[in-house]
Amino acid sequence: MDMLNIALPKGRLGEKAYAMLKNSGYPCPALEDPGRRLIFENPEKNVRYFWVKPSDVAIYVERGAADLGIVGKDILLEYAPDVYELLDLNMGKCRMAVAGKKDFREPVGKTLKVATKFPNIAQRYYSGKCRDIDIIHLNGSIELAPILGLSHVIVDIVETGVTLRENDLMVYEEIVPISARLIANVAAYQFKEQSINRICGSLREQMEGKS
Ligand code: PRP
Predict the structure, then answer these.
(1) Which of 107, 147, 192, 208 is most buried, by CB atoms within 10 Å?
(2) Which residues have CB under 8 Å from 127's CB, separation 6+?
(3) Termini Cα distance of the chain
(4) Distance 161 CA to ligand 1 centre (A)
(5) Pocket residues: Cβ below 6 A from ligand 1
(6) Per residue in 82-111, pLDDT tens?
(7) Around Cβ 11, how many Cβ atoms within 10 Å?
């Protein structure tokens, strides 16, 4: 049987994702004591896991370096990769939202300055409202932008809301709910259909509390 290559997002989401895979019958003991290695195999279960940056998971899967991957819906909405979305894993739940300072007022007759790591999501959202915006594309610590006057608002992920609260910011509009998804490479889904469906079925059963 062919080995399934699975890209896991490094960090909190990846740990939860691995726990789900383990509980679904696809453990990999080597991964539980990782050190700085990035690739881990369980030949008995025919799986090979590797850790990648969360925003890169879809690239590995789209280009076939991974057969499967676990990725936030935010990344799928932002990059629209050509992959199959197989399953909503119902974890890693958060929301994409517009946030700003508590005293924020919409600047009338002016272009709205929006800081974000998600320029496509932000652009689509404001195009839908026929609102002209100037996107300021940042790579992290987005919350600083309205505080320092770099932008009027931010479009960002809100999970617990703690980052906003601790920086005196608040949510103004909800854009879309986000959760983790299992994705598959298009060609791999044909060639490794059985193994992919088996792992997908096991994850689904586990989510439904049957295993
Ligand atoms: C994300 C997001 C917010 C924070 C929200 O940042 O961009 O800053 O998490 O989480 P909370 O609502 O639970 O506080 P991330 O941790 O990815 O770091 P970054 O600033 O480097 O993007």
Answers:
(1) 192
(2) none
(3) 24
(4) 9
(5) 140-143, 156-163
(6) 999 999 999 999 999 999 999 999 898 899
(7) 11
